[in-house]
# Entry
Amino acid sequence: MSGSDWYRASAPGKFVILGEHAVVYGKPAIVLAVDLRMTIAVRGSRFNTINGERIDFRRQPHLRYLTRNVTSGLEFETKSQIPVGSGLGSSAALSAALALALSEKENRHMTENDLVEEAYEAELYAQGIGSPMDASACVHGGGIAVNLPEASDRHLWTVTRGERTWSVSDVDVPDMTFVIGNTGIKAPTGPLVSKVKRFLDRSSFAVDIVDDIEQVTLQGNDAIARGDVEQLGRLMTEDHKLLSILGVSSNELNKLVNASMPYSYGAKLTGAGGGGCMVALTDQPEKVCEAIRSRGGTPYVVRTGVPGAMLHP
Ligand code: PMV
# Structure
């Protein structure tokens, strides 16, 4: 990725403290960006290549969408610390970083709001359904709240699609320690979001679960504001149970959540589920890491409060 004809940008991954899946239906969510980044470089070229291989756009829908107006060939190089298909927003980080790098290449200024719209459209193009939560977190960095009314004095942008509206605000990053555990099982977001939608379409019980997730998220927001780790942990564990009822947990996720519990205030799956990652709130990160490792997972003690999408020289 060296040389002056390259345009480079990066964006962080993220994890959801509370509210995934329910946020697709306009419910609140709280998300933190983490110090695992996706970096992408782009330059003009004869052929379309990514990391030295010809691009198969059928397998790269995000790239296909984001380059829809480009008529010349493009060469991409990516470097990522974010595991793919693991609930940490790898595709939103790719979309945010790529949209920014391309706008720089084409000398088009894009605001954070423009980048969110572009990255969210790429996500919708690739997976058909979803919220602008990941795109917002990866573009903005730090911490974001979606549809939390009292956060409106730090409003960033509102995204509307059809009858749904997501009002996104900046929130303080809580001074708390989170450990992420990766099951190593890849689970693409689209099918899991569709599975929850099918459940909601045919069952008022599922609608009640989504309403319960909303209540847990609202209470979690208050707990974060008070710095009440015990209450926040309890709510995270409660959220994990609700997400399990929605059918998006897995044996491997449950194993890592259960293994972390003795050393945590609470733990839950994070992101789409089905595999991918869980997150524990703890003041014993080493013990949680050990517990996750002992069950075959890969732990990351994540740093939060990191910058969003940015250009690199
Ligand atoms: O697994 P990820 O990182 O793509 O997160 C998905 C979050 C969902 O709430 C399940 C879907 C969405 O678009 O909000």
About this structure: Residues 20-21, 23-24, 87-89, 130-131, 133-134, 189, 193, 271-272 surround PMV (CB under 6 Å). Residues 7-172 form a domain with the Ribosomal Protein S5; domain 2 fold (CATH 3.30.230.10).
